[in-house]
Task: structure prediction
Amino acid sequence: MAKPTFRATPIQVQVPATSANIGPGFDAFGLALGLQDRYVAQIMDDPGLDIDVTGEGADSVRRDEKNLVVKAMYEGFHFMGGKPRGLALRALNVIPHGRGLGSSAAAIVGGLVLARALVLSGDERMNDEALLSIASRLEGHPDNVAAALHGGATIAWQEVRHGEKVARCVGIHVDERIKTLAFIPSNSVATTKARKLLPELIPHADAVANSMHAALLVQALTNRPDLLFIATEDFLHQKYRQEAMPKSFALVSKLRAAGVAAFISGAGPTVLVLHTGDPSEVAELQRAAGDSFSLQALGISARGAVVVSA
Ligand code: HSE
Result:
């Protein structure tokens, strides 16, 4: 296999935050949000890694080959035939970490898109499907990474092809009346911890109700926002995760009791609301949240990961 040749100039990528699940669409639905991390990478002649991180996680993010953006870049380079000798990375992070807003999906997708843009020629080009499959393997599930790559709302799934797991997704058009509100708490919850709380088995009646609501969610997002409240009711994961995020769960219950389409964003603990309302309703929601959450109207990002000029 011939070693790839690399671009000498830096590449910058912008990747959106994402909210996974949207209630009943566990591991399948993803929604890109209007908050973007930016990563700049350049191939270096000298061996080694030069990593600088500012913003979210600047105190805790790894500055070695375990850095998630770098790890994803190396996976991408490996797929395309080999990695460069030296690499410099600058990350400007704004997506909060450990809040269920897809910071790890952004790092993984951003790293893979950077790697693809930095390779000029190699044995194998990484198309979107290959990129999504690598990203899903690194993330452990395909929902956030699909939305981070493509933007908008996505439905992702995995299939086995020639003995290998392949991730795929489709985009769905989101009704322009739908807006988002994120209630972001100051505490974080690790996705691994939230996933360990899930039971092996669930009652059949819950599976039936969840299928109905997940199917309905497509229609609600596309052109029936009046159905969002019922369509975002989940039976698969939220109640089992309550002990890891009691305040978020209480807020979801309070908002839903008032007829608001609220759910846990991804593996939590952010609470996301989908609505078509006016500013007076937002003020009402703000009161319901109390002081424990910072409220942000993030909006839906039609764009996924994009290479922008460095
Ligand atoms: N579907 C995943 C979960 C999203 O809920 O565990 C994690 O970001």
About this structure: DSSP finds nine helices and 13 strands in the chain. The longest helix spans residues 204-222. The radius of gyration is 20 Å.
